[in-house]
Amino acid sequence: MNQTAPALRCAILDDYQGVALSSADWSRLDGRVEVRVLREHLTGREELVAAVEDCEILVVMRERTPLDADLLARLPRLRLIVTSGMRNASVDVAAARARGVTVCGTESSPVPPTELTWALILGLARQVHVEGRAMREGGPWQSTVGMDLAGRTLGLVGLGKIGGRVARIGLAFGMDVVAWSPNLTDERAAEHGVRRAASLPGLLGASDVVSLHLVLSDRTRGLLGEPELRAMRPHAYLVNTSRAGLVDGPALLRALREGWIAGAGLDVYETEPLPADDPLRTLPNVLALPHLGYVTEANYARYFGQAVEDIEAFLAGAPVRELRQPS
Question: Of 115, 272, 309, 322, which one is the catalytic site residue?
Fold first, then answer.
């Protein structure tokens, strides 16, 4: 007599908004995969292991939950990891593959982080966080004078898929856009209608708004330290929707507290969720958001819809969108 194989167990981690199941048709896995959702972020390793050690499949959102070699060794049942996006530095892909665990990704649109970058730039330029708080709390009626963007210089550190889109919007606002990255050429900059800065310090010293759009790597970690932040203009703003590790954290705090720069718009942090007592939550010249760059309806539909596809393909013995190199 044929016996039906038991269903595999799948945990979707860190579904903060509780929308993972409604963002895709998970019923396609009925009878083959039992899906459960963990909405709360589990910071303790023991707590995380206890919650998912019976699972063969994990679906992780961006870099919310690190899956390093030590943690993977404590999950002997694990067979498949699905991450949103095709790059996730918090998943040790090499260690996973060494244990026979397949790692697959999903597509990700550059549109949502581009739009959020401009939400931060505009919010800083017009002091939306300051004036909005005053309106809610009965504070002064008009206490700031906004920065005109037209005629100002936008400095982009990175001119890839997201940086290039940010550049086009800056040009539409009438800004002078200049860009720099380690491998950027004059020809590539010209394709986007912008100028290439000869050096990073040169870009920082000439810009009224600096926005970061580089991949975090050994070469780019800590790219902006104290010398670079001091090179910025005192009235300039720094915007980071890429990775927190691009900027030296203690140096950034000093820059904000001591007025080396006018302020910062931040969507990424070394520790996420950001601790409740972190000074970045309360500094008056910081416009801080809880890593919302990729969080939109269309992007979530793409992430979770393709997560279902990844699981189906894995069950069929033909994985798709497989990550084969360490992220």
Answer: 272
Six-digit token pair at 190?
A: 């010209």
Decide: residue 40, CB within 10 A, 0-12 exposed, 13-18 middle, 19+ buried: exposed
Which pTM was predicted?
0.92
pLDDT at 149 over 50: yes
Helix (H, G, I), strand (E, B) or coil at 305: helix
Give the residue-averaged pLDDT of 114-119: 98
Q: Is 243 a catalytic residue?
A: yes
- 87-111 pLDDT, tens digit each: 888 899 999 999 999 999 999 999 9
23-52, pLDDT tens digit by residue? 999 999 999 999 999 999 888 899 999 999
Per-residue pLDDT tens digits for 169-217: 999 999 999 999 999 999 999 999 999 999 999 999 999 999 999 999 9
Give the DSSP H/E element, type plus range, for residue 304: helix 297-315
Confirm whether 32 is a catalytic residue: no
The CA–CA distances, whole Å, from 240 to 121, 249, 268, 269 equal: 10, 12, 7, 9
Residue 47 annotated among the catalytic residues of the structure: no
Give all strands of the β-sheet with 195-196 in edge-to-edge order. Answer: 195-196, 176-180, 153-157, 209-212, 237-240, 263-266, 286-288
Catalytic-role residue among 64, 196, 243, 302: 243
Q: How many of the other CB atoms lie within 10 Å of CB of 201?
A: 15
